[in-house]
């Protein structure tokens, strides 16, 4: 028999997670579909479920000097309208699902779900987001790329709850978000691209590129990005084929019901090329 | 486990499996059949309801997540002046044909107008982007919401 827990506060939630084998559900916008049952029956959950969506303590956006702290149960729609949320993250959220889903969906759900096509993950990788995992013992602060280890795989322990997402301040000259999907609303990405560049005196100070739905994890390679620091923008543009050849080696898309690997491969490279050409 | 919430301004307490889809709770246990099931996966908006005034899709909403919250369904919304203005505008502009999407569209419109009483066409299209209609082609619905926003001036 599956047990259900609706904790009143975070400390009660952490005790449940410590005591029993509970899976955490936030807005449920993915899990309720993944576990969908035949008509009119409750979903097929095969583990105990802890409902975290109504933990009011975890609904906040706090701007600090060097970072933005987002409570894990803050809905995407709240973030979309919050004055302190970076525009790039808003650009991504705007193209995620629809208002009715965004009112329930959370960044934490996207992280725990660890889908290679999770749109918010692409920009969380780009912004060096830190995820705070809480248990009764401690808080662990892990960079997003250390949390997700593969499709639907994370290092989140069964006694841990995603408590907060921290986004360090990032001064940028230009950002870009492109989602390639079947329609504007409610689409799951075929390919997604996020780019950010900081330019000073016509030279690259910081270049960041992240790609989604193109590999088992979000692709972001700091070593490639570092190669182009201090280059002039003109030189970066001259080098664009060189940049692409680096990314060719590290992306490895798949065929599925939404798209093909050839299409994804080509479009991903086109998006990088387009980003650099438009600087 | 007992789950308490407010539904259409009444206090409700239910002892049901907390993982149940809220849509099934509404239709099968509370006899509120205004919210429809279309796709069953959050894409079509026929099951839309208001949770604390904001649109959500009840077909992917577990009952547990309404604990302590306020829900308004199309049946509750029907008791308001705003509903009447919207319904009249839908009639006037031909925004409803077969009717299956209409309750969800009305909820989406209310959710939008309550946050933004004078939306642009683009904002209306975003507001109803999670609601599918296979009859009207959307233009009449967009017009209806625009008309409601004008005629219901001061209501939202």
Low-confidence stretches of chain B: none
Rounded to an integer in angstroms, the radius of gyration calculated over CA atoms of chain B is 15 Å
How much is the average pLDDT of chain A? 95
What is the CATH level 1 assignment of the largest domain in chain B? Alpha Beta
Tell me the domain tally of chain A. 2
By DSSP, the count of extended strands of chain A is: 13
Strand content of chain A: 15-25%
Shape assignment of chain B? globular
Secondary-structure-derived class of chain A: alpha+beta
Q: CATH homologous superfamily of the largest domain in chain B? A: Beta-grasp domain
Terminal CA distance of chain B reads: 37 Å
Chain pair with largest interface: A-B, 29 and 37 residues
Task: Report on this structure.
The complex is a heterodimer of chains A (279) and B (156). Chain A is 32% helix and 24% strand. The model of chain A has no long low-confidence stretch (mean pLDDT 95). Chain A has twelve helices and 13 strands. In chain A, helix 4 packs antiparallel against helix 7 (119-126) and helix 11 packs antiparallel against helix 12 (261-277). The termini of chain A are far apart. Chain A folds into two domains: 4-168, Uridine Diphospho-n-acetylenolpyruvylglucosamine Reductase, domain 3; 174-277, Enolase-like, domain 1 (2-Layer Sandwich), CATH 3.30.390. Chain A has a five-stranded antiparallel β-sheet with strand order 4-5-10-6-7. Chain A has a three-stranded parallel β-sheet with strand order 1-3-2, with helices on one face. Chain A has helices spanning 10-19, 31-34, 76-80, 87-94, 99-102, 107-113, 119-126, 144-147, 222-227, 233-238, 240-250, 261-277; strands at residues 4-5, 22-25, 48-51, 61-63, 67-71, 130-134, 139-143, 148-150, 153-154, 161-168, 174-180, 191-200, 203-212. Chain B has 156 residues and is an alpha+beta fold. Chain B is built from six helices and five strands. Chains A and B meet through helix 5 of A and strand 4 and helix 4 of B.
